[in-house]
Amino acid sequence: MLVVHGVWVDGLLGVWAEDTARTPVPASRARLRRHPFAASTGALAATAGLIMGDFSEEALNGTLSELSGVPLPVARGAAREAGATPQGAATTTPAVPAAPGAPSTTSGTDRTGVGVGVGVGVGVGGTDAAGGGSGVDGVSTALLRGVTGLVGAVEARELTVLLPGSATGPLPSPESGLAGRARKPRISPWRIPALLFRPVDALRLLGSLPDPVPGTAAPAPDGLALEDGSDDGPAWEPALSLRYLAVVAEHARGLVRRGRILPQLVVEDGVHAARWRPVLTGADLSALPGLTAAMPPICRAAGHERPSAEVVGELLEALVDGAARSSLPGRLILGSRPGARTALADRWLYALTGEDASLPGARPAEAAALGEALTGWLGAAHELEGPVRVCFRLIEPAEGEDTWHVEFGLSPTEDTDGAEDADGADGAVRYLPVDRIRAGERAPWLPERPEEVLRAGLGRAVRLHPDLHTALRAPLPSSLTVETAWAFSFLRHGAPVLRAAGYEVRLPAWAGRQGLGLKLTTRPLADDHRLAEGNEGAGLGGSGHAGAGLDDRVSVRLDVTVGDHTIDAEELAELAELRIPLVRVRGRWVELDDLQIKAALKVIERHGGERTVGEVIREVVEGGDEELPLVAVDAHGLLGDLLSGEADRRLTPVPVPRALRGVLRPYQERGLSWLSFLSGLGLGGILADDMGLGKTVSTLSLLLSERESARPGESGHPEGGAHPGQSEQPERGGPLGRSGQSEQSVQPGQGGRPRQHGGPGPTLLVCPMSLIGNWQKEASRFAPSLRVYVHHGGARRRDAELTATVREADLVVTTYGTALRDLGALAAIRWERVVCDEAQAIKNSATRQSRAVRSIPARTRLALTGTPVENHLAELWSIMEFCNPGLLGPARRFRTRYQEPIETRRDPDAVSALKRATGPFVLRRLKTDRSIISDLPSKQEMKVWCTLTQEQAELYRAVAGEMLGRIDGSSGIERRGNVLAAMTRLKQICNHPVQLLKDGSGLAGRSGKLTRLEELAEEIVAEGDKALVFTQYAELGTLLQPYLAAHLDRPVLWLHGGLSKKRRDALVERFQDDDEPMLFLLSLKAAGTGLNLTAAAHVIHVDRWWNPAVEDQATDRAFRIGQTKNVQVRKFICLDTLEERIDEMIERKKSLAQSVVGAGEDWIADLSTERLRELFRLGPRAVS
Amino acid sequence: MPGPGSGDEPSTRPSTRPSGRPSGTSLGTPSGRPPGEPSDPPSDPPSDVSFDGRVADFYSPGVPLNRVRPRPRATTVPADLLLRILEPPAVKVRHIPLVDLLRKPYRELGGD
User: Fold this and answer.
1) Which terminus of chain A is more solvent-facing, meaning fewer CB atoms within 10 Å of its CB: N or C?
2) pTM for the model
3) A1108 at interface of B, judged by CB pairs closer than 8 A
């Protein structure tokens, strides 16, 4: 895998990569050495082609096959093999003539990081005088140009970059997963092959990086990095430095899109040039310190250590210029290309677009005059936002009057939140009307000459809203008295532009809010009281299974409202006659327009009628029209419960299924009622409870409940949980594996309970691969009567066999990857329900995965997620689209109706409307909710079942076999040592192959536990919680710390025995007192006792000590006096491995175990070889 | 012919390539700006920890990237706002005021 980094060098984006397939070898002793595991420029160019989409895989491979000796950006496994072949090692690069137009490179080390003695310039249209010279890595220049030509104009150069490391080599980046140690790392220069992109191409490259969501790796060339080991993972991954540069590029593009740029005349390398420069004021300017602080040091390490503020400045200027050139038309003025003798302004305008910005031979006097005018222009733009700004306050007429006022005043710029109060919460004056200033009132922020600020501000404001020009006529302007038409124009046109230009505009609270709204009232029909209050037992979902509920008919009335008042047809007709659409209705001012009035008149005409319940729900979700949004709903009975968004609290509880082996907490019972209610109606829902609140058990309860409802005479077997007619201890090898068994080894059609006529069909549950084991175990534990089939892996059923197997199943568990691959077969089956667990996986509606899952037909759907919105509201739309296809309307409408108003200006009307639209279908309970908290114990322990990857499984089998052989052939102390060694190795494999192999290879995608840890950590961090992660292996912590830090894009602490007490105390203090870090890795031995870490609400035991007392002691670092939150404790266990078996032994004989296994793992050494063979055996459920 | 940057240049020079700026000069201040003209940023740029002090997180951002990503903004603001609010510069191209030439392309930047 290539880990692709970015540096800023000489006005260009430098891209280089670490190649994890290359084994780091000690570097030479030369003063300036070559980076020992940097990728070649050929591999870089190929990767850039993939990123920018210029290559298909075939074209890429075709071109690269000619590049002998160039490592291809192939999947990791293949790359590892290729790593044995040295490539480009310590190549001395002959100089190749630079391409015309490309910046020339001089020999010798310069401050910009261009390497010594390397003068390679390969660009589009470049010529290679040598015809077949070698590039930076000894690659044929002609071939390299062939590659780079496809990806745009790039230069291949060898850079000198400062990196931390030791005498033997630079330290690898955390993203690479490579192991590297240096007792006292120091900064030293390294020669690195790189590609350099001009700003225009850099923007393209940075804009093409994959989704920056943590954990999203770049896909392998075939476009799919499937989750179950069918390929070897990503071919490349953007490092955080490249992601950082992409963020800067986003800022630059935003500035250009908003026109926050001005053209300038600059001097570059002694030659005049036409460039676009950013205008940074307000929020753009405020963002600069953050961008500067965020810059990873590597970004500014080319040549020498550069100040981050300087580099950010260069970056933004260059990228803004590039983005402007990409966005503007080819020419700003018609006519022929100006010649060298043409007026400079003409040439300058021409050079503002296109590739060539240079203006050689500009006459100094002409350049000075043009430069001065433009510099002054830019300066004035930055002056716009001084420390004090002009403020306009629109004051509505007093009752019974029609005269409006616009008051002028001044306010400090820092107070940007537009608070209406004249004074801040701290009592400080935030706004002063001009009249009061003239009367002598003062505030600390007031400038020395406020009149001048006011005059200048008013003068500029007139250019934006000419209606204000009368203000300038007065010698001492303080306010305007205006009519309603003027006020309307100011509200509609003036205020938004003035605000955008940095003025403060204070408007009445009603301004900008919807004037007219729609109220929908439903009532049961006279002959149909099923919707009436107190009659929930029948009809609409009373039992949760009245499928006809959506077809029930109700009477509907539609009214037009202003605020809380309903207005009738007569009043509406009067409003329609008004000339100015700003009116006072029943004491409240509202803005109206023709479209609103017309829409309202139409509503009044149709007024109401009869609808089905389904139609009413759809109408509520649609939320009315843009002109006339739905602002109120009045419904009775169950329909009212549903639409209230509080259905779980208002519905009649559904009985807890008798077959459930466990006790539901009250909020889980309410969740079951809600799930049953929606499911009965054939509606989909999102169960979005916080993590740890029991979404899994709620879902299993739903399946049990509907099976008991379908067979009222039967019950789940209260004792054994098995259905009548079945043995309590189901045989292995039955037709369908019961939960917790080896499903894929069974034969369908033997035994088992055939589906009863009319009973609920099978539920398809799609989840990340890492959760398959967890679902199996939880079903086995809580709902053993459910017949579970895991559709996953190479041995999974296909075609008719699959259909037959599914027919006999209650719950079919599969992964997102398998659902995509087997879409045809799965979509051909009629499912009762499709459930998406960790539904964030389908948050992007356009991905193949999302589309695949949506296309599987089902009577009803359910999404389970703790974070229904991670980044933006479109994710909610995507998940809702899965649950209730089409209900929220097209994505575009959702964007304009909800997403943009909420995300850009937190529009309260849009927030209410979205809650109304989605509330019925989303159940979200938070741990912070007092009513939920009171339901929970203060410490909640859970086992997290993980599976092994293929690689882990192979390694496990091999090591288990070898170690059992050794144990068998040994005795006494030697045997004991062998047993403990076997235990250790197998546990290491369960953690991560690298922990055993110690080969420095990458971590990503190779361990089920690590995948689960990543998912949990992301969720915990997203919720703003903190977690302790315990391991008994220091080497695992050392591997995990940089990896998780890079993965989460946050610091991660690591406390182990090698740290001094002072250092440990500092880490604990930081974790306890600061907002970040949020994740604390701890060695069980070093941190198991004595520490107070109550800032954490989560404890994760990645591996087990199998001594409850030791684990509890560690857990108690968080769960102790001072803890104010509930603590969730998770213990990771790999399915069907020694981890699960030892856990079972402990659970079966807990009291005995506490005495027997009190000494940790030593007792295992006394087991017979046969017992050990069974203990170490790798079962079929282990592998994902 | 004397080249740019020679002694013939007036005191108010065109802006120069930013790499020539003194260390720590914040952006938003055009190079070559007369002293005291435009406003300075609200706060000084954060001072850098030297590379030697950042060997442990040399490849990592100093603050999470999510915090510094640009936030979505209202799209109702016209992209030519800056041209409208500022006093136009005394620059003409073929006798046409520069601002008149730029207005339409600016509007198109915002997708109008």
Assistant:
1) C
2) 0.57
3) no
